[in-house]
Amino acid sequence: ADIEAGKAKAAVCAACHGADGISMIPMYPNLKGQKAQYVEKQLKAFKDGSRADAIMAPMAAPLSDADIANLAAYYESLK
Amino acid sequence: ADIEAGKAKAAVCAACHGADGISMIPMYPNLKGQKAQYVEKQLKAFKDGSRADAIMAPMAAPLSDADIANLAAYYESLK
After folding, report:
1. End-to-end CA distance of chain A
2. Is the predicted ipTM greater than 0.85, yes or no?
3. Contact between chains at A30 and B28 (C-beta distance less than 8 A)
4. Do A30 and B29 touch (CB under 8 A)?
5. How would you write the pLDDT of chain A (79 residues) with one tens digit per residue?
6. Which of A31, A52, A64, B51 has the least CB density, counted as fewest CB within 10 Å?
7. What residues of B are in contact with residue A36 (Cβ under 8 Å)?
8. Domains in chain A, ordered, with CATH?
9. Cross-chain residue pair A29–B30, CB shorter than 8 Å
């Protein structure tokens, strides 16, 4: 996966999940250092609806598998 | 919430999520320092089935609201 591409793609995510992956909003999870396989599984679940979330569904909808892999690798890389 | 009670309750969770909240298994999320409100929302969703997961459903099923609040506070307290 391409961590730099993931970082660029994550600009949108930073609004809720924090520029450093620590969320400013108690209801939204921190993603800093989170397991890439877990993040990937959740983004795909939001995208196909097997995990229901009104906010995350439209966020995940436009993401390609490559975007998802890059985002997941980027967040895991944050130490 | 009672972080000590949460810690005791988390003995079961440590098998997958790690004794320090860092999972040894790539597919299972780290919980160390995770937002308590987020963890609480997810445990309740696993419990009522609004979030489907074959592994987490039986884990969440026996938890009371107090257990859930204590577990969530415990994991957020891990720095």
Report:
1. 17
2. yes
3. no
4. no
5. 999 999 999 999 999 999 999 998 999 999 999 999 999 999 999 999 999 999 999 999 999 999 999 999 999 999 9
6. A64
7. 26
8. 3-77 (1.10.760.10)
9. no
